[in-house]
Amino acid sequence: AEPDTRSRAKILEEDDQDFINIKDVELLGKGACRGQGWQSGQWPLPQGRKSLKECAEKCKGTKGCVAFDLSNKESDKYDCLLLGHKDVLPASGLAAKCYVIRGARPVESTLAAPAAPTAKRTSKDNYPPSGFGYEKLGSGLCRGS
Predict the structure, then answer these.
(1) Are the CB atoms for 28 and 99 separated by under 8 Å?
(2) Closest C-alpha among 96, 91, 92 to residue 81
(3) From CA 58, how far away is CA 31, in angstroms rounded?
(4) How far is CA 31 from the centre of its chain?
(5) S-S: 66 plus which of 74, 104, 126, 144, CB 3.0-4.6 Å?
(6) What is the pLDDT of residues 101-142, one digit of tens each?
């Protein structure tokens, strides 16, 4: 369901000065936090409904988190989204507010795509490996003419 236009206006018209008293948190601008690589690796990490302070603390406590955005305000709770990419920019077309953690740096390991699990090779045959004048061609039965 699309958020109604009143909630969009509500978040964009809030007094930005209310939020300056959280240590190392700075309002970057109006709009969702975006920028090149914003969906890299494990990012973004949705945190559910949080207050500004709760979302800020969640970001500070998450390895590689450099920014968070708040959207869809109801009472004092927002949808909290954590981000860990470089060069964070507020996308003003999206009804949200983008905050950065001063001094936080992206962590490369959190930006990498998760490694694909490597399949273990299991041998179900009891045949010896190649050698001694023989060559193992596979694990099936030999056929030929």
Answers:
(1) yes
(2) 96
(3) 20
(4) 18
(5) 104
(6) 999 999 999 998 765 565 555 555 566 666 666 666 666 666
